[in-house]
């Protein structure tokens, strides 16, 4: 949809300069008081921010989570004081006292923006390029929502995504991946504003960058505009053009001076990551003609921003009224809308997923594929994709359509729910976070577990934001086989378990796979990682009265003997072999208990009484997993033995590797016998 700027009286040149100086000085003064921060970017971007917030952004500070607001992402998160200044000026719940506490203990004005800490902060940013890629994910979710609900004359989805980025973001590889996919998809609701100041921490960007950024983005399918980032008329003209472009994303290359207003440090690397210093701050005040006390918003600037905010009221009220009319019409589409906005889970979801995980000796990736097919109709807000491994991951979503431009294939268009990410794991994971931030979609992505290394930064940020993103990994052990050690994950399960707030599930059969997905879809307190086998696994035998909800406790007794003092614990593909080894040991007269532990994290969250009922403190404990043993050392008992693989794999058929590395039932039996003598 082609949007026009809000009808706000243009400020005089003097007032516009004063407003931009207010943003610059609030930023510089807060950083000076903190004795820490990055004044250069906020001071250089102040004019871009002023024009955007005053005339173009769709927002309501009284309803900061309004579903149809524009999203502003600060990919160059070190420019946080610019964002905080704008939120304060626009009437968000951010007091001047909190700005004065920038970067201090207990303050909501963190050094880099943190999601959930302040209204108006849409995503946690800091690692360069992640925010840009989150913005691409948000734009995908918004385009998908618009395609599905902007019908019959109603237009409930008009919001756009704006993302600020700097020279560092432009250099990061993740931005290349995300920009390539955004251009391919024709995301016309995305505008990127490039703070093109030519300075990095080391000095001029010419030390490391000689790309023609314009040509690069144009080659990726973007519209590219340019402006003087300190000329308000040029900035407004660029925003006008960007809003008129609806068939592809737009990059505005705004040439700016880092630290604008600082007479001695402006335009240099010395203003990038350190306070101006008292002397240079005083000289900056003089250069800008700033005569106000520290942390002052001039009355005329405050009044102008109130006018700007008020101009949005009619837009917001009209949208809310249209929603009420739509709701009262009892339109079937309204019911679908409420399902999206609540992302509600059907009451019978668990039973249906368990039924979908068909019995039989199948790889858990195939069991997962059966579950995903059921989810297509059960959870219409679920959006997924794979990194060019759809057949291998088993992530097809039959009937959901492919997200993309209209006309490429019969089932492709912006209303599709399956996204072919291509070979772009870095961007894929961060885009999933953006989609999950949309308030309307839950997103998953998939690849081989060995490529989790490429996705780790985004998974870490999902955990930090407590986002319920879903990351699906197949080929989860050295059983990948002939592809060799480069493709055989050894340390990857451990590295993912090390991230606070991530729940890793490694199911051993169909029911555990179904319950892993159920947990992922009902867990709202952080990301879920599900790892799946390439090779077929047998269905585990459970007691007739077994309650499958026990799987959700992370670990449970699979087979037991009264008074067992030897407890064998395994996950995923090792459970069946461990069960067989336990039975062989039991035949010699030793009392044995076998425990399946699909999630170490969920098990460790259980109360001590439950944990002790599964693994008695006085027992001899043996853990088995085809990965490094470090995580399992969190489980303690009177005596512990950890069987794993603390070295890289090799190229050979999976059954050969299983024998050579000691993971057959016979080899496990021998190892356990030797260890417990």
Descriptive report:
By secondary structure, the protein is of the alpha/beta class. It has three domains: 13-315, Thiamin diphosphate (ThDP)-binding fold, Pyr/PP domains (Rossmann fold), CATH 3.40.50.970; 349-531, 3-Layer(aba) Sandwich (Rossmann fold), CATH 3.40.50; 553-676, Rossmann fold, CATH 3.40.50. 41% of the residues lie in helices and 13% in strands. It is built from 25 helices and 20 strands. The strands form five sheets. Strands 11-8-12-13-15-14 form a six-stranded parallel β-sheet, with helices on both faces. Helix 18 (452-465) links the parallel strand 12 and strand 13 (470-474). Helix 1 packs across helix 2 and helix 17 runs parallel beside helix 18 (452-465). The model has no long low-confidence stretch (mean pLDDT 96).
Question: Helix- and strand-based class?
Answer: alpha/beta
Strand tally is 20
Number of helices: 25
Poorly predicted ranges:
none
**N/C terminus separation:** 73 Å
Morphology: elongated
Question: Proportion of β residues?
Answer: 5-15%
Mean pLDDT: 96
Number of domains: 3
CATH superfamily label of the largest domain? Thiamin diphosphate (ThDP)-binding fold, Pyr/PP domains
The CATH class of the largest domain: Alpha Beta
Strand order of the largest sheet: 11-8-12-13-15-14
Helix content: 40-55%
Radius of gyration, in angstroms, nearest whole number: 28 Å
Q: Specify the biggest β-sheet.
A: 6 strands, parallel
Assign the CATH topology of the largest domain: Rossmann fold
């Amino acid at each position: 949809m082609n949007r026009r700027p809000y009808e706000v009286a243009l400020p005089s040149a003097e007032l516009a300069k004063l407003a931009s100086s207010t943003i610059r000085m609030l930023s510089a003064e807060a950083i000076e008081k903190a004795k820490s921060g990055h004044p250069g970017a906020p001071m250089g971007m102040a004019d871009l921010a002023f024009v955007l917030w005053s005339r173009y952004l769709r927002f309501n500070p009284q309803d900061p989570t309004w579903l149809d607001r524009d999203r502003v992402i600060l990919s160059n998160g070190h420019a946080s004081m610019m964002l905080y200044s704008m939120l304060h000026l626009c009437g968000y719940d951010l007091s001047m006292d909190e700005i004065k506490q920038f970067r201090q203990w207990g303050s909501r004005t963190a050094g880099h923006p943190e999601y959930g800490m302040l209204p108006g902060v849409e995503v946690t940013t800091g690692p360069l390029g992640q925010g840009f890629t989150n913005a691409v994910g948000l734009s995908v979710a918004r385009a998908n929502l618009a395609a599905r609900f902007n019908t019959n004359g109603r237009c409930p989805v008009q919001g756009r995504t704006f993302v600020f980025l700097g020279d560092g973001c432009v250099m990061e590889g993740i931005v290349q991946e995300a920009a390539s996919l955004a251009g391919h998809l024709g995301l016309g609701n995305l505008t990127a504003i490039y703070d093109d100041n030519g300075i990095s921490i080391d000095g001029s960007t010419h030390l490391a960058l000689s790309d023609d950024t314009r040509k690069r983005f144009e080659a990726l399918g973007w519209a590219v505009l340019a402006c003087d980032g300190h000329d308000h008329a040029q900035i407004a003209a660029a925003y006008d053009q960007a809003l008129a472009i609806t068939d592809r994303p737009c990059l505005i290359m705004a040439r700016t001076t880092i630290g604008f207003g600082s007479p001695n440090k402006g335009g240099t690397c010395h203003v990038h990551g350190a306070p101006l210093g008292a002397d240079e701050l005083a000289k900056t005040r003089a250069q800008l003609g700033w005569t106000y006390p520290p942390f002052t918003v001039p009355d005329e600037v405050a009044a102008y921003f109130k006018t700007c905010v008020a101009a949005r009221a009619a837009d917001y009220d009209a949208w809310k009224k249209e929603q009420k009319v739509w709701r009262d019409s009892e339109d079937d589409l309204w019911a679908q809308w409420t399902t999206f906005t609540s992302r509600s889970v059907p009451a019978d979801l668990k039973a249906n997923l368990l039924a979908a995980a068909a019995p039989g000796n199948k790889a858990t990736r195939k069991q997962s594929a059966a579950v995903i097919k059921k989810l297509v109709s059960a959870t219409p807000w679920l959006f997924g994709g794979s990194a060019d491994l759809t057949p291998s991951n088993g992530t097809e979503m039959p009937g959901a359509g492919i997200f993309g431009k209209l006309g490429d294939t019969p089932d492709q268009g912006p209303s599709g729910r399956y996204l072919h990410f291509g070979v772009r794991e870095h961007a894929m994971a961060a885009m999933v976070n953006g989609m999950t931030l949309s308030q309307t979609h839950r997103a998953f992505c998939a690849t081989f577990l060995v490529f989790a290394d490429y996705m780790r930064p985004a998974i870490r940020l999902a955990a930090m934001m407590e986002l319920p993103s879903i990351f699906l990994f197949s080929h989860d052990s050295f059983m990948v086989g002939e592809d060799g050690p480069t493709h055989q994950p050894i340390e990857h399960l451990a590295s993912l378990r090390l991230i606070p707030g991530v729940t890793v599930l490694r199911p051993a059969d169909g029911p555990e796979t179904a319950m892993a997905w159920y947990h992922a879809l009902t867990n709202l307190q952080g990301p879920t990682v599900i790892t799946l086998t390439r090779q077929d696994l047998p269905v585990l035998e459970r007691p007739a009265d077994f309650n499958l909800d026990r799987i959700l406790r992370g670990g449970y007794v699979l087979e037991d003997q009264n008074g067992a003092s030897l407890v064998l614990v395994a996950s995923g593909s090792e459970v069946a072999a461990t069960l067989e080894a336990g039975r062989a040991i039991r035949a010699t007269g030793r009392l044995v208990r076998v425990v399946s532990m699909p999630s170490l994290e969920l098990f460790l969250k259980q109360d001590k009484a439950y944990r002790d009922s599964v693994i008695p403190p006085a027992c001899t404990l043996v853990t088995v997993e085809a990965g490094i043993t470090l995580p399992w050392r969190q489980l303690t008992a009177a005596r512990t033995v950890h069987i794993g693989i603390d070295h890289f794999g090799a190229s050979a058929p999976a059954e050969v590797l299983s024998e050579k590395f000691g993971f057959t039932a016979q080899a496990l039996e021998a190892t356990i016998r030797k260890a417990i003598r």
